[in-house]
Specification:
The chain contains 4 helices and 13 strands. It is α+β, with helices and mostly antiparallel strands and 261 residues long.
């Protein structure tokens, strides 16, 4: 599961890190506590259309873009944002079978940049962790889609809503004692295939991502932190660097599995 994450890198850092060619002019800023339904930064490859120099010729190749999107996938058939689910996580096992994910997985795959994410132990002491790479930015597998906002005119720039979701997988390794799900991590050498809309969204691509993601997972740091990131009550939601302050870890109780070192 990935329900809260952190992105402290700014747009210029992400352009260099992900090899982006075009940047949206309205990206959300850095945040220490990103929650579902907020706007997030995604990397996607979308067609640039035919240029004047190629009229009558083939379309220009896709351009890698840095975009702002709503976190929570809104399917094209939704009548409103409250009409059915808008999942912020997509189970990897359902990418090719669910009506919510089949079309995005086929041609609208994204990367969600993250400095790290929060998770807490499922049972007992409920210890919280900030899970992150030693340096750099994680590339989390994602999907995106466009939703036509009802009632807005064709010439209204807000008529299309871009939304995204983070793909998750069965947890393994050090994550397994904490939660049963974790994000699908993408190593840099798989970014091009995942983003390319010409790459078939089938079992081969998913198998590659699942296998390669374990290498990323094995290199992550698990930093014990306090529970301040959890609350969404009005007036209690926090978004500040102190959320990442390490705390002394709580020893697991006898009925818990210890976090592997």
């Amino acid at each position: 599961m990935c329900g809260r994450y952190v992105l402290t890198a700014d747009g210029s850092d992400l352009v260099e890190w992900f090899g982006v060619g075009t940047v949206d002019n309205d990206l959300p800023g850095p945040s220490y506590n990103i929650t579902p339904s907020q706007r997030v930064v995604i990397v996607a490859e979308t067609g640039s259309g035919r240029s004047l120099s190629t009229v009558g010729g083939p379309p220009d190749p896709p351009v890698r873009r840095l975009l702002g999107a709503r976190w929570g996938l809104v399917p094209p058939f939704a009548k409103s944002l409250t009409d059915g689910p808008t999942p912020f996580n997509a189970r990897s096992e359902k990418l090719m079978t669910s009506g919510l994910y089949r079309a995005p997985y086929a041609r609208r795959r994204a990367i969600v940049p993250a400095s790290g994410f929060y998770e807490r132990r499922r049972t007992g002491d409920r210890q919280s962790y900030y899970i992150h790479p030693a340096d750099g930015v994680l590339g989390l597998a994602g999907l995106y889609d466009w939703w036509r906002v009802p009632g807005l005119a064709d010439d209204d720039p807000a008529r299309w809503l871009l939304s995204a979701t983070i793909v998750t997988r069965d947890a393994g390794g050090r994550m397994a004692p904490i939660h049963d799900r974790e994000p699908l991590y993408l190593p840099p050498d798989l970014w091009a295939d995942w983003l390319d809309p010409a790459t078939p969204g089938g079992p081969e691509l998913l198998a590659m991502a699942l296998d390669a993601g374990r290498t990323v997972a094995d290199a992550l740091d698990f930093t014990p932190v306090g529970p301040g990131w959890l609350s969404t009550r009005p007036g209690s939601y926090r978004d500040d660097p102190e959320l990442l302050t390490p705390v002394p870890p709580v020893a697991p109780t006898d009925d818990q599995m210890a976090l592997p070192q």
